[in-house]
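Translate sequence into structure tokens.
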Amino acid sequence: MAPPPKSETKDRQALAALYQAYAPAIYARCYRLLHSKVSARDAMQETFVRVLAHSRSVLTGDEGLHYLYRVSTNVCFNLLREQRVRERATPELAARAPEPLSPERGHVDRQFAAALLDRCDETSAAIAVLHYVDGMTQVEVADVLSITRRTVFNRLRKLETLAINLLGAARGRRGEESA
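Result follows.
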């Protein structure tokens, strides 16, 4: 394996120095905004991950600190926004929660899900599980699978059509059996 280019090594060293110098200040900033040690630590880490992922060259000195403050502020605001959405959605979701399933109903649902996934290719099955079981957004699924969000959207629509067709076929067989 070839060693990384000198510019990449230099950027990593600069980022490490930036982290050593400013991580405590960024953590304090995040803590002031989020009022949670755990959330502040996560936000601080996310700030440096974003710097690593999006910066072509690592900034130093005051310029680096100002950039880190701006990124950390955006990360914190995004976390606060997500938290507010969850807080508003929780009562609504609880009100919409279905009645507890009987063991028989759960078995039928699992059989239906297995039949549906058996008719899918591997990528579509992964999309279905990540989106419907794990609760990921289309963008998150696209990131995890390294595909476009549009591909995720199209595959989900195909899965829904397949599910509707499967349900229709199952209802048709039940109608024939009872006649």
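Note: The chain is about 85% helix and 0% strand.
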